[in-house]
């Protein structure tokens, strides 16, 4: 009998099952017809019943099994005991059977920080743009995003009743990424994906400076990173402080696991320690390949507008 899996592998395996449970909660709320929408800071910053229940489910499930990890969730919710039907105790067997990269095999629970976005793309969710919606669970150690899980609750929804609805992908540094087919945009094409609802002149100037052949405007940070790893876009360019650590931790880990890169607009890495500011105040620049090209194209005016912390 081999030794029991490393703590971080058990955490990723749990996060996988927990993300699937959160995805089913997100679908259930939509089908109920009552989204329970409240505005947080304005019409572009919404919270729904699905955000609240999915976060409760994720945080309660993970902290019950891993009481010493630090969990930081997007939604500021009053503490209440999660109902038992929100708890997910399962763990993805395929993950438990993988060998943990040596550098992470001795990690302890208290060294790990989990960043949770229970429903990334809330505005799109309320507008029926369901392919933009993801559940994000990122795991960080020593300030770096080392593993991540992305669930797409409505993957395949346009194919109708017969199609399997939803999918979950995951990745870990030193292991790779799973649950999707890695593809690249043909080398001579520059396709930039950027924000759908948070644009302004700085954002537009920066996108234009990349000299893209095509620009795709969609919602959700998780969704944009999926576009990069599935060959639909070559760069995710968001020259604005609107993104938070829970938006980028899981996607960054998956992107980095397949050789991509996510930084701020200056080319600096983000830190995911428990005590960092939540805002990614110097924007987000993510690529599968040729990161230096895109960093080099960022206009001086944009760099001035987005000072690093």
Automatic annotation (TrEMBL):
For biological process, the GO terms are: phosphatidylinositol phosphate biosynthetic process
E.C. no: 3.1.3.57, 3.1.3.7
Q: What class of enzyme is it?
A: hydrolase
What reaction does this catalyse? adenosine 3',5'-bisphosphate + H2O = AMP + phosphate; 1D-myo-inositol 1,3,4-trisphosphate + H2O = 1D-myo-inositol 3,4-bisphosphate + phosphate; 1D-myo-inositol 1,4-bisphosphate + H2O = 1D-myo-inositol 4-phosphate + phosphate; adenosine 2',5'-bisphosphate + H2O = AMP + phosphate
> Which keywords does this chain's UniProt record carry?
Acetylation, Hydrolase, Lithium, Magnesium, Metal-binding, Phosphoprotein
Task: Give GO MF terms, alphabetically.
Answer: 3'(2'),5'-bisphosphate nucleotidase activity; inositol-1,4-bisphosphate 1-phosphatase activity; metal ion binding
Which cofactor does this sequence's record say it needs? Mg(2+)
Q: What is this protein called?
A: 3'(2'),5'-bisphosphate nucleotidase 1
